[in-house]
Input
Amino acid sequence: MSIVIEHLNYVYMQGGPYETKALDDVSLTIHDGEFVGLIGHTGSGKSTLVQHLNGLILPTSGQITVDGMDLADKNTDKRAIRRRVGLVFQYPENQLFEETVAKDIAFGPKNLGLDEAEIDRRVRTAMRRVALDYDKLSQRSVFELSGGQMRRVAIAGVLAMEPQTLVLDEPCAGLDPKGREEILGLISDLHRESGATIVMVSHSMDDVAAMAERVIVMNHGKVAMDGAPREVFSRGEELRAIGLDVPQAVELAQKLREKGFDVPEGIYKIEEVRAAVEAIVGKGGRHA
Output
């Protein structure tokens, strides 16, 4: 299943005194099974873009098709779109409202008109995927959980819809280091085990470098870069010019090269820096 975006434009408050063009002629295709990292400074259009992917908002002009279905077509079943593309908002735990964990996760499947046995299966499966113990937690109030657990319940609620594509807007925002590590781990496991397409919006270059197979950079509503992480993160000066950082591994590799050490170009993961340093040490610390 592919998501195809063609010449997408979106204008907030069109015709009013505060009219703002949030997306400007965006064209790209998200392919089945990809892990895409979407980055950009605040106001770059990345959150607006991902809200288009399941029809939450519709284009001012241009076209988006999901599995061949045109989101702007009045005859397109929006429920069918949202079964295919699940969207996890930033701070999704703020949308939890049911009495228990199980009821909250079951909310979406219940609205699909599924029978109780299928709803129960989906709740149990979704909880397992986000490492929440069904027997211990399903009947607990969501408000008795830790912040990281609440975040996982919110993600489970989207997974229970069994989407083919999962879109996450800053999934680690506001979490402590332990919670952040847990969320990133479950996203990585989900992609590896199910082959689901993942689109992850993040301000963390290190998270994107560690997880994404493709990086899309947004700037002023346009796609500024789109390519493999090694290619995108090698353009450090361009990224800094639009207000973005590069992964720590890129910075460290550059500093080592400036000191005269023989560190290959294109490094963007910390394990690659480690391997380069070990190679230097193995050569007796010789410079290039």
About this structure: Strands lie at 3-12, 20-30, 35-39, 61-66, 69-70, 85-88, 165-169, 197-201, 214-219, 222-227. Residues 247-288 form one domain.
